[in-house]
Design goal:
By secondary structure, the protein is an alpha+beta fold. It has five domains: 74 residues, no CATH class; 137 residues, Endonuclease - Pi-scei, Chain A, domain 1 (Beta Complex), CATH 2.170.16; 149 residues, Roll (Endonuclease I-creI), CATH 3.10.28.10; 106 residues, no CATH class; 130 residues, no CATH class. The protein has 14 helices and 34 strands. Strands 4, 9, 10, 13 and 21 form a five-stranded antiparallel β-sheet that branches. It has a five-stranded antiparallel β-sheet with strand order 25-26-27-28-29. α1 runs parallel beside α3 and α11 packs antiparallel against α14. It is globular. The two termini are 49 Å apart.
Length: 627
Amino acid sequence: MELPQTYVIDKMYSYSTGIRETNSYLNGCCPVCREGKSWGQKKRLFYFLDEDYIYCHNCFSGDVKILTLEHGPIEFKKIKNCLVTIKCKDGVWRKRVINSYGIQPIFKYTFGNLAKSPREYMITATENHKWFIKRDKKRRKYDYTTNLKIGDRLDSMEYSEERSIEGLVHGIIFGDGTYRKYKGSKRYAIIRVCKQDSRKDEILKILSDAGYKLHYPPNYKGDVYVNLGNIPGLKDVPTTIDPKYIAGFIYGLWLTDGHNDRRYTISTTRKDLVEWIKNYASMGGFRLVNEPSPKNRKNCYSNAKPIYSISLKENSDVVLRKKEFVGVEEVFCLEEPVTGGFYLADNILTGNCARGWNTFFWVKEVSGQSFNQIKNELKDYSNDSNFKLVVDGIEEKHFELPSLPGECVNLKDDLQLKYFSSYPSVKKAKDYCFERRLFTAINSPKTFYCCVNDKFHGNRLIIPYYNSTGKIGNYISRKLLETDSKAKYLVKFGSKKPIFNLDKIDENYPYIFIFEGQIDSMFVKNGVAVSGVVLTEEQDQQLTSNFPFHNKIWVLDNYRFEKKEVIETIKDKLGKGETMFFYPNEFSEFKDLNEYCVKKGLDFIDPDLLIKGSLKGDRGILKLGED
């Protein structure tokens, strides 16, 4: 495959190409968007960020709907270049701009529910759009892909939308209340809650919390009567698009007109309600999972209205059933740097609209060469550049030490845990791993240990370092008990501070995130830990010789909590051209990533958040000064 002259291997680190200007464009070929196997068949417009980063935008057609606070579910093309409030992956509504990314080939993706249901959800998007797919049903681990395949299961919401009391009352009256006309023209909303109603207590609590008085007339035989007063519109569908109100309305309606099953199933004769549910249920965190159709009621009077059955679900996954090419048209999307994801209509979770490469990984993808093939081809590279390749490593002989200290209990082995259940340190270690989400973190080691009888590491959590062969080559221990007077962390005796998680680096992903502590690094793809804020000579050599083309980003603890000397170290790194992650405002109250993940219930931080929140040089120093 012939590469463009600009990107032949021996020139990829040259700064004389003329295309590395910030915000410059190149009309070239995209490695993931090209058609067929032949280079150059598909031309694309690349967007360059900073010095040598290439962006390829992958987006939606204009007819796809996105959830917004201003308009409800609305087509992308109707809000082109507009600032709107969108629902992000974590359920928070944030303001983002809807951009157009030109004319691109698009595919129609047909999604369906996991249960047998005829309802399908059609979305047209570029073939390489980013999606979150579920890879662990029990632990709710997910990953993202730009190559969605038939059978892939999209990740769903992990929360329920908050319900407003006003919406709940509206739904209850809409479903089972009525209006009664008293003296004059005023109409009063009333409801009679039957004593046989299985949801009676919940309905009455909502009405009582809303400030309404409950009456128990003797002739009602145990039923409860509530007069809500003159409130117009309670027998009409909501006119607001407030998510909390809609969530409350649907739940209140289900309490009075719903069925007890695994779904929120509601029966109604109101066709306007059916259309409203189709259009706005997703604003309240629900997804319509069936196709409501009118059914005539048997054994009923002749003029009875047909009844509709509406089935809704919260937090349900969808699976890709069909994918087909549909044509070429203008595409739209947005960039959400905090979570990397947002919600379309029908509560379909999707990812940010861009994929990027540095020059090396771009060449790797379009040339088809492996990581080692390109690395070997560059051994004799001699042009001036900021690239340094260390070919030969330094090996020093050490005396043999056991892979683990003393007697260690595997915290993922049920038999060992049962045998050592009377050991306080073992229980403490297991509880600590659960509390800090270490067992489920996306980048955690295979297991953890608790040492029960070593002179230095006894009664401490052991975090193992695995090598490339899958064996434990090193470890670090963490204090668990208050009676332990030793340092919080202790390294293996004779160790020269190796790099934690070096064995888990994906060489095909162009970033490595360098953390001070091991625990924080477990929550990010390609996260490593170096037990400090500077690299030792051996650590620097390990990273440079094994991963010379990767972009390295430092992710230290939140600088807002750091001591003065650490801030000076950060400034020094920025001055030397190193890249640092700066915690956005959403993280201001958290000391580090693990604390944030524990609070938010996360096992994974999207690397895009770290990439887009990173600065270097004068820009980073100015950022420190601002805060």
